[in-house]
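Model: You mentioned two targets. I'll fold them one after the other.
Researcher: Yes, keep them separate.
Model: Target one:
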Amino acid sequence: MRIHIATDHAGFELKEYIAGKLREGGHEVIDHGAHSYDPMDDYPPMCIACGEAVVADPGSLGIVIGGSGNGEQIAANKVRGVRAALAWNLETARLGREHNDANVVAIGARQHGHEEALSFVELFIGTPFSGDERHQRRIDLVAQYESSER
């Protein structure tokens, strides 16, 4: 599977770890930055680029990482067509995919150790959307609002 990934300085070390593990597992990982540690960088450009790439690459998924994951999720969700879910445990990682067909997962590097964060990513990637009519209906309502002119 092709997986897009992005972070700022706060998640740089975790991004490198997760990207390496995903590549070892046979995934194609596309890194949208940060490409080096810079304590003064800002997450929005990288997270938006990751979200845009996921939308332009059907069937791919994305990972955005920061200190808490909150800002990264917000930035990614500004991209039309992105459904980014903040995962803070296995259940939220699974439900993001299963109920919301999330195509991007956000993770807080300052909130979780490497192995725990990787377990969220692996579960997110491995969980299919349920296809349940009520979940699809809700996704469609959000997409309808997103595409409407206001």
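Model: Target two:
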Amino acid sequence: MAPVLILMGSQSDWPVMQKAAEMLESLGIKWQAKVVSAHRTPDLLKSTMEQAEQDGVPVVIAGAGGAAHLPGMLAAYTAIPVFGVPVPSKQLKGLDSLLSIVQMPKGVAVGTLAIGDAGAANAGLLAAQVIGSFDSDVRKRVHEFRTAQKEKVMANSDLELPK
């Protein structure tokens, strides 16, 4: 299977988008990251999605800040599921990115995650869940991840909380 594509509009988005890569790695899923700007490299954006279609990429995770057109433009060129991660911006702390990504017109779907690190990690987890719908080994690893999360919470459930 082709790796999950992690795309971002700028190299400066990597500290956030790296969380998606880390989640995918922890679940044994291969990934590939690239910088593709919706505004500065539109031809590269189109050819990247054409290649992804040919290669059988199962999921695309796209991080973008500010105007955040990348996830929507990617989705316009493919039937591959695209998950958008709003990258925090300096001016509006990612709210601008979130609103841009979540406001897709009817007929062009982008799954939108939370702003920042949590959204990127959950995009990786959601990509694994999609892959797990047809790959039982990945689904098993997602279940194991969830069990580990539960056990971690349960191990701390009896802690004395400050008053």
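Researcher: Noted. Anything on target two?
Model: The chain has six helices and five strands.
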